[in-house]
User: What shape does this take?
Amino acid sequence: MAQAASTRRAKGKATRPTPDANPKPSDQAEPLKRFLAIYLGSPESAGYKRWLAMNEAERKRSEISGMQTWMRWGEQHAAAIVETGGPLGKTKRVDPEGVSTTRNAICGYVVVEAESHEAAARMFADHPHFTIFPGEAVEIMECLPIPKM
Assistant: This one.
C-alpha cells in the first residue's frame, strides 16, 4: 500500500516523504536534520524593561495571550518538534579553575526536525517568544552527528 506524500517515521526519526511504500535502495528517503533552537532573553533588554513597565493587569493579559499563541505555535509545528524542551534555570560554568556561577542569555530550548537549516529557522519567524513576550531572539543550530573514529 502506498504512503504517498506522508512523512514516515523509522525508529523515532522522521524521514522525507517517498512515493511508494517499497522504495528501491536508491529511492530511500533521507532523514530529516535535527536542530536545537535556543530562546534568548535578558533582564537588561529594552523589551524586558517594557514588559516590567506594564501594569499588572496588562502584563497578565499579555502572559495569557502569549501562552495561548505559543501553544498554537506548538500545535502548528507538532510534527517537527522532537523534544519540547522548556525554560532553563540558573547557569553553572565548569572550566580548569573549577565550578562557578555565571549568566547568559539562554532562557529556553526546543529541538525540531526540518529538511534544511533555513526551513528550521523559518519555523520561528514571528514566534511569541519575541512578538508577545520580552524575549530577544531564537537562535537555531544544526545538531551534527558525532564523528566516527
Residues 31-142 form a domain with the Alpha-Beta Plaits fold (CATH 3.30.70.1060). The first helix runs from residue 46 to 53. The chain has four helices and eight strands.
